[in-house]
Amino acid sequence: MEEFNDKKPYEISFVSADEEGAKRMGESLKRAGGEIIFESPLLRIPLAYPIEKREEAFFGYFHFNILPSEMAGLEKQLRVQPIVLRFLIITPPLMKSKEKHQYPARRKPSVAPTIEKKQPSHLSNEALEKQLKEILQ
Q1: Taking the CA atoms of the chain, what radius of gyration do you get in angstroms?
Q2: Of 37, 66, 105, 131, which sees the most CB atoms within 10 A?
């Protein structure tokens, strides 16, 4: 039976004012009881619109596990940090297992036997009328 206290996987992406933002983000995750699984390298990106009068910022993301009950506290910690300009927490989609499922080999579709169509022979009008008379009698 599963316990209700199991940690669940999450992903947080963030935009910070400087490189220190990633370090603080990681510290906040650990303080909230999170276990960091993956940390992306920081990328300096131009912003689509100014945020707090900044034209550039640093983008990064973390994959981590945390108890769902601790998420509210984590969000409060992140909202009060001025160095973190924006963040978004999501639950990642289910990961497919690496082993491939073996499907049976496909059979080639059966080809219907071709029926030879007799090409109509060219009949003269007289021969056609003769055949019609025979059919109608």
Answers
A1: 35
A2: 66
Structure token pair of residue 2: 């599963």
What is the spatial distance between Cα 88 and Cα 53, in angstroms, rounded to a whole number?
Answer: 21
pLDDT (mean) for 118-126: 73
Domains in the chain and their CATH numbers? 8-90 (3.30.70.60)
0.70 surpassed by pTM: no
Q: How far apart are CA 65 and CA 76, in angstroms?
A: 18
Residue 129 has pLDDT above 60, yes or no: yes
- Supply φ then ψ for residue 44, to 5 degrees: -85, 125
CB 52 within 8 A of CB 22: no
According to the model, what pLDDT value does residue 92 have? 82
CB 28 within 8 A of CB 78: yes
